[in-house]
Design brief:
Length: 275
């Protein structure tokens, strides 16, 4: 997604030589839909992120395992009885919550999408606003794909030793830039673990400097990587071999048939309409 955005801004003529784009990140797909809606998408694009295989195995099942792996490797904290707020209840948020709940953590959810919020409620979680619980929680995990989800105001109100980490997108969800000021002291505890110290002595434990916890602090199962890579490869082959005119300058969902049917033949898929 970042590469597509960069090429679009800096070298738009490159798109004349590109047959299509394959995008597998949540935020990257969101950007493509924005370009398509504005009529600025120059080439066809395939939304791999919302394919059955990618969404479930990478976003849900993998995060269910890697969230605990990353937190345990970096903090060694015990989660039974800890109060945790998970920002976002999409596929990533669902995976994180399932793992934390199984360990006995008290889990709160923040969510702006009404359907996802209802799902969180029906799954037995309390849906709150971040401001309502920020003073009492022991762990804050972002899983939204948005930016500035946890702001400096939130960080100032956190209690001592609160753990803050990101499972969402890049390094935009936690406002880490606002912490790099002369009034705050950074102390490197171990690799990927920093204590940010306030003038009154309060410490916030920041993991991976706000970057993705699962990519920075844990291992990702090779099975998950192989599924994602294979799905992207199939989408690339389909875009390359499709006859001219099949795909317009729009964003297309990867058909279930491509991920499930062993008889798939490149360029011969009944894709249907753009999404």
């Amino acid at each position: 997604g970042d590469l597509t955005h960069w090429v679009y801004k800096k070298y738009p003529n490159v798109f004349k030589k590109i047959r299509g784009i394959v995008e597998e990140s949540v935020t990257g797909v969101h950007r493509l839909y924005q370009l398509s809606k504005a009529g600025k998408l120059c080439v066809p694009a395939m939304n791999v992120n919302d394919s059955v295989t990618k969404q479930k195995f990478d976003n849900l099942y993998c995060c269910r395992e890697s969230i605990l792996d990353g937190l345990k490797r970096t903090t060694d904290v015990m989660f039974g009885g800890k109060q945790v707020v998970v920002c976002g209840y999409g596929e990533v948020g669902k995976g994180c919550c399932a793992a934390l709940k199984a360990l006995g953590a008290i889990v709160y959810i923040t969510e702006i999408d009404p359907i996802c919020a209802l799902q969180a409620c029906m799954d037995g979680f309390r849906v709150v606003k971040l401001n309502e619980v920020i003073r009492q929680v022991d762990v804050v995990i972002t899983c939204t794909g948005n930016k500035n989800v946890v702001t400096r105001e939130h960080l100032d109100r956190m209690k001592n030793s609160c753990i803050v980490c990101n499972m969402g997108h890049s390094n935009t969800e936690i406002d880490v830039t606002s912490l790099r000021t002369p009034e705050l002291t950074w102390e490197r505890v171990r690799s990927q673990v920093d204590h940010v110290i306030w003038p009154d002595g309060k410490r916030v434990v920041l993991l991976a400097e706000g970057r993705l916890l699962n990519l920075s602090c844990s291992t990702v199962p090779t099975f998950v990587l192989s599924i994602t890579a294979t799905t992207q490869a199939l989408a690339l082959i389909e875009l390359y071999n499709a006859p001219d005119g099949r795909y317009k300058q729009d964003v297309y969902l990867l058909p279930k048939k491509m991920g499930e049917d062993g008889t798939y033949q490149p360029g011969r898929l009944d894709v249907g309409g753009a999404c």
